[in-house]
Amino acid sequence: MTELAPVDEAITLDQLNLDPFPIYRRLRSEAPVCRVKAAGRTFLTKAADTKHVKDNPELFSSDDPNTPMKRAFWAHTLMRKDGKAHLTERMAMAPAFAPKVITNEWMPRYQKIAEEYVSRLPRGEVVDLFAILSGAYAARGLAILLGMEEASDEDMMEWSQALIEGAGNFGWRDEPFERADRANEAIHSLLDSLQDRHRTSPNPSAFSVMLTADDPIPEKQIYANIKIAIGGGINEPRDALNTTLYGLLTNPEQLEEVKKNGDWMKAFEEGVRWVAPISASSRLVKEDTEIRGCLIPKGDTVMTIQASANRDEDVVSNGEVFDVYRDDCHHQSFGNGPHFCQGTHVARRAVGQIMLPALFDRFPNMSIPDIDAVLWRGFGFRGPIQIPVLLE
Ligand code: HEM
Question: Mean pLDDT score of the chain, rounded to an integer?
Answer without folding.
Answer: 97
